[in-house]
Structures are given as C-alpha cells and as structure tokens.
Design goal:
The complex is a heterodimer of chains A (113) and B (113).
Chain A: E1 4-7, E2 10-14, E3 19-25, E4 33-38, E5 45-50, E6 56-59, E7 62-67, E8 72-77, E9 86-92, E10 102-103, E11 107-112
Chain B: E1 4-7, E2 10-13, E3 19-25, E4 31-37, E5 43-50, E6 56-57, E7 68-72, E8 75-80, E9 89-96, E10 102-104, E11 108-112
Parallel strand pairs in B: 2-11
Antiparallel strand pairs in B: 1-3, 3-8, 4-5, 4-9, 5-6, 7-8, 9-10, 9-11
The chains are: A mainly beta (113), B mainly beta (113).
C-alpha cells in the first residue's frame, strides 16, 4: 500500500530530446506527488510537485502528468540538457500533520551532448 | 525554501562507535525528518521528529540504534549507535514548509570500517 514504483532505472537521452520518467502508486490516500532531482554528493532538491486535483503541471522545461484513475504520474523533461544529468526520484505522501514521503527507486538520467 | 545545514558533511568511523549528526534550519519548522540513503539506493524514512515530543520511528528502525533529539524548532540530531559497516549510508534531514513541500539538507556521508 505504501509502495511507489518508478521506471526506468536508467535513461539515456540525446541533448534536446524529451526525457520521460514514470511512477505508479497503490495507496489511493496519497494526495501529494513531488519529484526530486539529486546530483552526486548533494541532497535531493524539490523540482516540481502536483496534487491530484489537476492532471498536468508545467514549470519551465519540466512537466508532471497525472492520471488519477490509473494511479500513475510522470515527469517530462523537454529539451533535455547535459546539465539535467542526475538521479530523479518520484515520491508521494498522505494528508496529515507529518507528511512522510514514500520514494520511488530512482532513475539515473544521462543526457548526451 | 528553508536553508538546511548538516554536520558533519562526511565521516569515517570505526565499528562499534557512535556518531551524532546535526541538522540546523534557518527558520522555525514543526516537523523534521531523518532519512537514510544507502549507496546507489533510494531514500528510506528513519523517523519523524516533532519538537517537544518523542520521535516516531518507521518499521525497521529503533530508538536504541537511532536516538533522535529535537530540542527546539530549528535543530535536531540523529545518533547512529554501535555502528557496523551496514550503517554506511548517506543520512539526510528534511523539513516541511507551510505549503507541505519538503526540503532536504545536503546529507552526511557515513563510512563505517
């Protein structure tokens, strides 16, 4: 019930291409879905997040698509750049005073120049 | 977003010893969280620390092994006790914002010999 499944494990994209990372969840109580970007030796940085009352959220080159009925959400990185090469984690949390995050397994993205 | 610092940034410790990791936030926050990230893996929540009350531990983590203090609204410590090589990980603290977003510190990279 707490699991968030993320795919693919690794992704290689050419510069200028679109990177797509997918996540699926089981617990229908989840109501907040953030994506984090982590560079080697750094802590995860919040990239973009969505709540289930909308199906899409866009911030710059980053877009989250959300499908509530399928319990799936995805991150799209448009015009991918070598500087986007990092590990990306999806996560989910439930309502409450303490919003513990359940993380996906991570996707290592490499953008080739 | 909150500015979070952790000390030490990294350490190499001997088996059987203990290490206390400090987490400092530049603003008052209600909840602080401690996560573990094993090499090449995702993040796993260790415990939630609410100021003025005992920390709440996740399944698989116990207070004797990972005692936590939360003396005020800007500071917390996590101690890794009686360490073994299996405790070699990155330990991360995070905080909630009033909007429900969660921000992470830079992490403490622990190696146990």
């Amino acid at each position: 019930q707490q699991q968030v499944k993320q795919s693919p494990q690794s992704l290689i994209v050419q510069k200028g291409g679109i990177s797509i990372i997918n996540c699926a969840y089981e617990n229908t109580a989840f109501d907040y879905f953030p994506w984090y970007q982590q560079f080697p030796g750094k802590g995860p940085a919040l990239l973009i997040a969505i709540r289930p009352d909308v199906s899409e959220k866009k911030e710059g080159r980053f877009t989250i698509s959300f499908n509530k009925s399928a319990k799936q959400f995805s991150l799209h990185i448009m015009d991918s750049q070598p500087g986007d090469s990092a590990t990306y984690f999806c996560a989910a949390s439930r309502p409450g005073s303490a919003r513990q995050l359940t993380f996906g397994s991570g996707t290592q993205l490499t953008v080739l120049p | 977003s909150a500015v979070i610092s952790q000390k030490p940034s990294r350490d190499i410790c001997q088996r059987g010893t203990s290490l206390t990791i400090q987490c400092q936030v530049d603003s008052q926050v209600t909840m602080m969280f401690w996560y573990r990230q094993q090499p090449g893996q995702s993040l796993t929540l260790i415990a939630t620390a609410n100021q003025g009350s005992e920390a709440t531990y996740e399944s698989g983590f116990v207070i004797d092994k990972f005692p936590i203090s939360r003396p005020n609204l800007t500071f917390s410590t996590l101690t890794v006790s009686n360490m073994s090589p299996e405790d070699s990980s990155i330990y991360l603290c995070s905080v909630d914002s009033v909007r429900g977003e969660q921000f992470f510190g830079p992490g403490t990279r622990l190696t146990v010999l």
